[in-house]
Each structure stands twice: as structure tokens, then as C-alpha cells.
Design a protein that fits this description.
By secondary structure, the chain is mostly helical. Helix content is 64%, strand content 0%. The N and C termini lie far apart (78 Å).
Length: 170
């Protein structure tokens, strides 16, 4: 008798259970997402940027970035956040959102992506994205509607919506 003779498992089911990419990985509840977002916003910047932390260090050595914020949360609260840090953080968030191996939940990566774009837009009147205004608005509205979003990030997204609405009225 072989080892597997009593095994009547469904290969398709096992494959789905073991697949941690895509929608299967984003099964976190609101409290868990809120806690993960708080952690991401409060972690030291170089750690919060994961593999992009090495690029941050290079930019600091080159003098392109001076006096960086201590965390992503600080970055988003600054009156004039450094644009190179916003660009790095945006690239990091985009990479996490598209990488099926990323441990960061899709929603948090997407939220950070939009927050970087909006911070550059509202604090520097600078676009660091090719997103059309309508697509950006949809993303900001989505972020504002999430129950797990930090109040300071929600305020930033709302500021972005107001900015885009004002821009559309001109």
C-alpha cells in the first residue's frame, strides 16, 4: 500500500489554499488592516520602504535627500514632504501592489500609493504620477471609504479630492 492511498484531497482546492498571491492573500479584516497600516506608518522610514530602503540610503549619501522624515506617517504629515522620498515611497507601494510575493496587503499598498501622489500634488502642486484626474479621484474616494484608514491619511485623501475638484472648476 502506498503512502498516498488514503489521500483523497482535491488538487484544485489544495492549490487555492496554498496560493498566497492575489485575492486569496487579501482576506484581512478591518482591525487587522488598521493595525498593519499603523505599523507601516510608524516604522522607521528605511524599514517601511523595504527593499527601497537601500535606495533611500544612496539618495541620502548623494545629498539628494536631506533631513528625511523618520517614518511614512511623518512624511504624510509634513507641510512640505521631500519629493524624492514621496517618489521612492510611491515606487515602493506600486511594487508591493503588483508583486504577488509581497507580504503587504494589496489595499494598504494601494492606499500608500495614492497618499504619495496626493501629498506631492497638494503640498507641492506637483504630479508624480501619470494617472488621469478621474482615476485618481476614484482611488481617493475608495481610500476615504475604507474603515481601516488612519484619520490623518483620510484627511490627506480628502484634501486631494478638494484639490482635484477645485482644479476641475477652473
Amino acid at each position: 500500500m502506498s503512502e498516498n492511498s488514503g489521500n483523497k484531497s482535491n488538487p484544485a482546492l489544495l492549490s487555492r489554499l496554498m496560493d498566497l498571491s492575489g485575492a486569496a492573500a487579501d482576506t484581512w479584516d478591518s482591525q487587522e488592516l488598521a493595525a498593519m497600516l499603523r505599523h507601516q506608518l510608524s516604522a522607521p522610514l528605511a524599514l517601511a520602504l523595504g527593499s527601497m530602503g537601500a535606495e533611500l540610503k544612496k539618495e541620502l549619501q548623494r545629498g539628494r535627500i536631506t533631513d528625511p522624515p523618520g517614518s511614512l506617517g511623518e512624511l504624510f504629515r509634513q507641510e512640505k514632504p521631500p519629493v524624492p522620498v514621496l517618489e521612492l515611497a510611491k515606487r515602493f507601494a506600486k511594487r508591493c501592489r503588483t508583486d504577488p510575493e509581497s507580504p503587504m496587503p494589496h489595499g494598504i499598498a494601494l492606499l500608500l500609493y495614492y497618499a504619495c501622489i496626493v501629498a506631492a500634488l497638494t503640498r507641492h502642486s506637483l504630479s508624480i504620477s501619470d494617472l488621469a484626474d478621474d482615476s485618481l479621484k476614484r482611488g481617493l474616494k475608495w481610500g476615504c471609504a475604507q474603515s481601516w484608514v488612519d484619520p490623518s491619511i483620510r484627511a490627506l485623501l480628502e484634501e486631494g479630492l478638494a484639490h482635484l475638484d477645485k482644479k476641475g472648476q477652473k
